[in-house]
Design a protein that fits this description.
There is one protein chain. The chain is an alpha/beta fold. The protein folds into three domains: about 180 residues, Lyase, Ornithine Decarboxylase, Chain A, domain 1 (Beta Barrel), CATH 2.40.37; about 240 residues, Alanine racemase (TIM Barrel); about 40 residues, no CATH class. The chain is about 30% helix and about 20% strand. The chain has twelve helices and 25 strands. The strands form five sheets. Strands 2, 3, 17, 18, 19, 21, 22, 23, 24 and 25 form a ten-stranded mixed β-sheet that branches. Strands 4, 5, 6, 7, 8, 11, 12, 13 and 16 form a nine-stranded parallel β-sheet that branches. The radius of gyration is 25 Å and the shape is globular. The N and C termini lie far apart (about 60 Å). It binds pyridoxal-5'-phosphate. Pyridoxal-5'-phosphate (PLP) binds next to loops.
């Protein structure tokens, strides 16, 4: 039964408040936009639904934060924004303007980044599969290539020789031993073999004489600072051995995977986790669509599995995460990781994607219809599809905001699921049931918070020939919000 309540504070926008709330951290620019629906309406009328909005000042702030941390240690460092996390050109341009580089993972990412101001100093190529054309473009422009395997060495050597230009390369390493366990990865050279390989085959008068090793690289799949510290210490040792053998290594790149925090309150996160488990065990799941356990399941009366989502709440995140990596004390030398880097004169590099996009983006969609399904549940159809906000895991666990066209005077609380435009039963945009103060009307908006990192673009498809959503670059407003502060990312021109 819906509850009727006179709203004390009349507002036009509300956060969805399900039984187990997951309140996202929001920024003032988001509220500014919610408060000025004239601008928002204009944007959606002009660009269609949904629109992705990217706030450049927040991106710049994240960059400054990482810079300040490295500078506080007096370290040599470089930051490369992993643009795989978001397709927008505007962010690449801003990365260069803010004095950092860009990590590219495909020919087009590299080519476009070069056209947007990238060069040998501020780009790196880390593609998982490297084509001839990628490698050629990188060598021609002096962009370092992170090599993953021997076949890539062969290909890079032959292209470099053909062009007549030495390729600057970094070696990706994996298989670090942490607490007695070898960390498996499908990527990279094995940590126990890389020194022999480089020592035997790479450099002047060796098989790969057109490759110049300038650094080492790793990217860990986990979110452990401990594993990163231990892997970094091992890499520093490898770098110093290789230096002794005459290789002029200058950097170690520790990739991305720096945790960020999406949620305001830890207790909400814990309560949600506990109650989801309880709902699965007791088989009375009224939290998610179609009893989805988001990774938990009941087998022979026992709870199995684990929450298969990003860990949305993290006390240690971004800057404090990196600080923890750098402050770790190496048992052998008694020195911190930061001191070891300084002592060995090694530049540390990072490639954050998601964490540099914290508070940068929002996806806003228009309500298309409302209906009650056969179970009596309200389904609110949005003009968007599941690929336009899709997590690589079971769900995106942040409460959305609902923007009403007028003030809500009487609360008539309603539980809804948001559904999308693909012809799939599973096109349900959030798996959690969301409680709203009032059923939204057709043409009102739903805003999904903090979607810039991977959520907007990574799985975006054009099934049914739906247009891809428009990416708007919001330069920020000092005074009154205006339509003209939003630049269509498609209109950002590339230098030819
Ligand atoms: C090599 C490499 N660098 C950087 C990143 C960016 O990671 P994140 O967005 O988690 O910071 C990834 C992500 O997969 C990666 O594979």
């Amino acid at each position: 039964m819906n509850q009727l309540r006179i709203m004390k504070e009349k507002k036009m926008y509300y956060k969805g408040a399900p039984k187990y709330e997951l309140t996202p951290i929001t920024s003032s620019w988001m509220h500014e936009l919610f408060n000025d629906q004239v601008v928002l309406r204009g944007l959606i009328e002009r660009y269609g639904s949904p629109v992705n909005i990217h706030h450049l000042p927040s991106f710049n702030e994240n960059i400054i934060n990482y810079k300040e941390l490295f500078e506080s240690y007096g370290l040599k460092y470089r930051i490369f924004y992993a643009r795989k996390a978001n397709k927008s050109k505007g962010l690449v341009k801003q990365a260069f303007t803010s004095g950092i580089g860009v990590d590219t993972a495909s020919y087009k990412e590299l080519e476009q980044s070069l056209s947007l101001g990238g060069n040998a100093e501020n780009l790196v190529l880390t593609a998982a599969i490297k084509t001839e054309e990628q490698i050629k473009l990188a060598i021609e422009n002096g962009v370092p290539i992170i090599l993953d395997n021997e076949d890539e060495c062969v290909l890079t050597q032959s292209i470099a020789k053909e062009i007549g230009k030495i390729a600057s390369v970094g070696f990706r390493i994996s298989g670090f031993e942490v607490d007695g366990e070898k960390l498996y990865s499908r990527f990279g050279f094995d940590v126990d073999e890389v020194v022999d390989f480089i020592g035997s085959y790479v450099g002047e008068q060796r098989t790969f004489d057109f490759l110049k090793v300038t650094g080492l690289h790793f990217h860990l799949d986990s979110y452990s600072t401990h594993q990163r510290s231990v892997s970094l210490i091992a890499s520093i040792k490898i770098a110093s051995t290789l230096k002794e053998k005459g290789h002029a290594l200058s950097f170690i790149d520790i990739g991305g995977g720096i945790l960020m925090n999406y949620l305001e309150k830890e207790n909400q996160w814990l309560t949600f986790n506990e109650n989801l488990k309880k709902a699965v065990v007791e088989s009375n799941n009224d939290i998610t669509y179609n009893n989805n356990g988001l990774g938990f399941r009941l087998e022979d009366g026992k709870l199995r599995g684990k929450l298969n989502t990003y860990p949305f709440f993290n006390t240690i995140n971004k800057r404090s995460f990196l600080k923890e990596v750098l402050d770790f004390i190496d048992d052998e030398s008694g020195l911190s990781v930061a001191s070891l880097l300084l002592k060995n004169d090694i530049e540390i590099r990072i490639e954050p994607g998601r964490s540099l996009l914290d508070q940068v983006g929002m996806t806003i969609a228009k309500v298309s219809h409302r209906k009650k399904d056969a179970k009596g549940q309200w389904l609110v159809g949005l003009e968007m599809n599941m690929s336009q906000m899709m997590s690589s895991s079971a769900d995106f666990l942040l409460d959305p905001f609902i923007l009403y066209g007028s003030e809500v005077e009487v609360e008539e609380s309603v539980d809804v699921f948001f559904t999308g435009a693909y012809c799939l039963e599973r096109d349900v945009l959030l798996k959690r049931k969301i409680t709203l103060p009032k059923l939204p009307a057709i043409g009102e908006y739903v805003a999904f918070i903090n979607t810039a990192g991977y959520m907007m673009h990574f799985f975006e498809t054009e099934a049914h020939l739906f247009e891809l959503s428009t990416n708007l670059i919001f330069t920020g407003s000092k005074e009154k919000l205006s339509f003209f502060q939003f630049i269509d990312d498609n209109k950002i021109v590339l230098d030819s």
